[in-house]
Amino acid sequence: MKPVLTLGVLLALSSAAAQTCQGRVITHALGVTCVPRTPQRVVVLDAGPLDTAIALGIKPIGAVGKSAADNEFVTYLKDRTQGVANVGVIQQPNLEKILALKPDLILSAKIRHGELYPQLSRIAPTVMTESVGATWRSDLLLWGDALGRKAQAQTLLNQFRVKAKRIGQRQRQVSVSVVRFLPQQTRIMHRASFIGTVLDEAGLTRPASQRVNDFAAYVSAEGIPQMDGTFLFYTSFGDPKTTTQNEMLKHPLWQTLVAVKAGRAIAVDDDYWMTGTGILAANRVLDDLAKTLK
Fold first, then answer.
1. Is 122 exposed, middle or buried (0-12, 13-18, 19+ CB in 10 A)?
2. Which residues constitute the signal peptide according to the record (predicted)?
3. N or C: which terminal CB in the chain sees fewer CB atoms within 10 Å?
4. For residue 190, which of 247, 133, 237, 239 has the smallest C-alpha distance?
């Protein structure tokens, strides 16, 4: 069983690190790390820290692709990731490629790469958030702190919240449903997800079955009635032909949904509605909502 770092232990470690650190001391999910005052060679091991770094004006030297099936960076950042080295995929970063880049800071999350933390820390100072997705707002601030731009990260978050409330205030009479199609799996997204928190920030109402403080419901075709809302947004992870999308959209129950019959079942980009989990992705979602919820 791994030891739990109590607040007292973290404070003691932080104090000790501060005495020897020539940069800045960051307390994170896996301990205390001395990072450069101004990191220059940053490697990111998930879409969230990639989104965060670019939002804060820092172009990483290396990043991971989305999955073994799609070893590319999220498409909404394509124009801003030219020249960034690919160092594997989220599920399996390539440590040799990371080492060869000589980074001075690595950003990730415990839930993704906690087991790799010792190896990554030997390559470069490594800062990890506890989780990803629904925690994206606090993740933004921690990664922003590690990058030396916490104040800028807070400003971006404040601006997002103002924008979200402005959009949501115009749409109090609608309910918003969100569904994600994956290979052999269909998810109805709940509140404790990235997209759930974005909708919550906007104050948008969810269908009764989706007002649940967990990640998602995993359903078969019989669960299609739970997908209904005034508006139904759906995404597909990768090629829709490899997911459950075609099966669901052709099912007789899909045609009975109020949103479908009213022409308000709308396909949206999985990369920023689901995968991106960062401030840039969240703002892109708001843009979609502003154009659609009329």
1. exposed
2. 1-18
3. N
4. 133
Gap between the Cα atoms of 93 and 98, Å rounded: 8
Count Cα neighbours of 229 within 13 Å in the Cβ-side half-sphere.
Answer: 25
Torsion of CA 208, 210, 153, 16, to 10 degrees: 120
Cβ neighbours of residue 165 under 8 Å, at least 6 residues apart? 201, 202, 203
CA distance 108 to 120: 10
- pLDDT number for residue 294: 74
Residue 130: domain span = 7-148
How much is the CA Rg of the chain, to the nearest whole Å? 20
Q: With respect to residue 153, please indicate whether it lies within any of the assigned structural domains.
A: no
Question: Does the residue 162 lie in any domain?
Answer: no
102 plus 198 within the same structural domain = no
Of 148, 178, 207, the one marking the end of a domain is 148
What average pLDDT does the segment 39-43 reach? 98
Q: What is the dihedral of CA 212, 191, 138, 44, to 10 degrees?
A: 120
**Do 137 and 241 fall into the same domain?**
no
pTM confidence score: 0.92
